[in-house]
Amino acid sequence: MKKLLYILVILFGINFTSFAQSPAEIENAGLQVKFIKTFPNPASTVVNFVFQKGYNRSYSIQILNAIGKQMYRAKYIPSSLTIDLREEHFFRGVYIYQLLDRNNIVVESGKFLVVN
């Protein structure tokens, strides 16, 4: 009976440790740090997009509303972009931003909330 208990404890321990991953394994698994930091979130008057890493002048950004309509698009964005929500007529709701490379392939996407 003791042997069976030891075997179960060892098997449980092996299964449990297989879920633990080092930071290098996580990065190699495709999980990476975001390119853009968006703040404030929720936003009321302006929303800022700041590159955290990997800035490339050829990137463009588009913002879609909740039903997928393009609300804003900027080509060749700077390393820091501020959008005036009142000037661009953003109403209350959830918006999706997409960072696009020069081939219009989505590199990153995220959400932000507008509260007016």
Helix amount: 10-25%
User: What is the overall number of helices?
Assistant: 2
H and E string: HHEEEEEEE
Largest sheet properties: 4 strands, antiparallel
The rough form would be described as extended
Q: How many strands in all?
A: 7
- Rg over CA atoms: 22 Å
Report how far apart the termini are.
67 Å
From the helix content, strand content and strand pairing, which structural class follows? alpha+beta
Question: Can you walk through the features of this model?
Answer:
Residues 16-28 have low confidence and may be disordered. The protein is extended, with a radius of gyration of 22 Å. It has helices at residues 2-18, 23-28, and strands at 36-39, 46-51, 60-64, 70-74, 80-84, 93-100, 106-114. It is 20% helix and 36% strand. It is α+β, with helices and mostly antiparallel strands. A 4-stranded antiparallel beta sheet has the order 4-3-6-7, with no helix packed on it. The chain has a 3-stranded antiparallel beta sheet with strand order 1-2-5, with no helix packed on it. The protein is built from 2 helices and 7 strands, in the order ααβββββββ. A hairpin with a 5-residue loop joins strand 3 and strand 4 (70-74).
Question: How would the blueprint of this fold be written?
Answer:
Elements (H helix, E strand, L loop, with lengths): L1 H17 L4 H6 L7 E4 L6 E6 L8 E5 L5 E5 L5 E5 L8 E8 L5 E9 L2
Describe this structure in a few short sentences:
This protein is α+β, with helices and mostly antiparallel strands and 116 residues long. The chain has helices at 2-18, 23-28; strands at residues 36-39, 46-51, 60-64, 70-74, 80-84, 93-100, 106-114.
